[in-house]
Design goal:
This protein is α/β, with parallel strands linked by helices. 38% of the residues lie in helices and 11% in strands. Strand 4, helix 6 and strand 5 (175-180) form a beta-alpha-beta unit.
Length: 311
């Protein structure tokens, strides 16, 4: 049973002043000692969704080049077969559609009890119809939510649980859950409402996940980060101003490997690596690097509990 479970369960059984205060403080003493970023005994194991093309494929090649083990997934069987032949053992690739929770659950289950150290929820779709919100077809609005938001949740639910359990093992490396966000999750755009809504939701989901990590005593053992990758040319991003993808994979992989416990829940991006224009970044509503709040505070303390104190 995860640390702190009884405390949170008490809120639903008997919503006392003490239970409410504990719930909103949302912290449990962390496991000790903090986890190392890397291991000398073995390579890290990196799970990547959407690994058959674009950023996911660049990630897969970069982590392989850095000596780590890649477990990828995708929907296109011909590309999966080509990757299995190209990468060989110990790397493996599975068929998985992140829109289906059953598919994600099967993917996670197929890995058995093997170590997993980094999970990159990368699979996603864009929005091709660039129109004002009131002209956007319902299907075009819902599709990014199904893939980008719900898909990230399914990965968090099934792989985040594995990371959380393995994070408690003595000597385990820092477990990293990386949810691919977007520059458009930091700002707004009147022509891409569906895509923006889906990626803003990924930011919120990632921060809530980081708060769960903190609440259950896994600070220093596991992190969750929303990561905006940059304006990178891919199947998803065909804008004329997109930067070439060559070299991006290694920059992004090394950045992820550098993340530590202090980064958990922060809205991160590859801005410092030059993958976003400085003028664009100045328009962001969510600033680059915005950290997780130090505590969870309810919007309005209940009138019957006027003396609640918060850290």
């Amino acid at each position: 049973m995860l640390p702190g479970f009884e405390r949170f369960a008490a809120l639903t059984v008997a919503p006392t002043k003490e239970a409410l205060a504990a719930y909103f403080k949302c912290t449990t003493p962390p496991c000790e000692p903090p986890a190392p970023l890397l291991l000398e005994t073995r390579p890290l194991v990196v799970v990547i969704t959407g690994a058959t093309a674009g950023l996911g494929l660049a990630f897969a090649k970069a982590f392989r080049e850095l000596g780590h083990t890649v477990i990828g997934c995708g929907r296109r069987e011909d590309r999966l077969a080509a990757l299995r032949a190209e990468f060989g053992a110990p790397h493996t690739f599975f068929a998985c559609d992140v829109c289906s929770e059953e598919s994600v659950a099967s993917f996670a289950s197929a890995l058995g009890n093997r170590d997993i150290d980094i999970v990159i929820a990368n699979a996603g779709v864009g929005q091709r119809d660039l129109v004002p919100v009131w002209e956007l077809a319902t299907a075009a609005f819902v599709r990014p939510l199904e893939v980008n938001t719900a898909g990230t949740f399914y990965v968090t639910r099934h792989f985040g649980r594995i990371l959380a359990e393995q994070a408690k093992r003595p000597g385990a490396p820092l477990k990293r859950l990386i949810n691919m966000s977007s520059g458009l999750a930091h700002c707004t755009n009147h022509l891409q409402a569906g895509y923006i809504a889906s990626k803003w939701a990924v930011e919120a989901l990632s921060k809530a996940t980081a708060q769960s990590i903190r609440a259950y005593g896994l600070t220093g053992r596991m992190i969750c980060v929303p990561l905006a990758p940059g304006n990178i040319a891919s199947e998803l991003n065909v804008s004329p101003g997109a930067r070439p993808i060559e070299g991006w994979g290694l920059a992004a992989a090394n950045y992820i490997l550098s993340l530590n416990a202090e980064h958990s829940g922060a809205s991160l991006s590859l801005t410092s690596q030059g993958y976003y224009d400085a003028k664009y970044v100045k328009t962001w509503v969510i600033p680059d690097g915005m950290p997780l709040p130090p505590a969870v505070v309810e919007p309005q303390p209940p009138a019957e509990l006027p003396d609640l104190q918060y850290d």
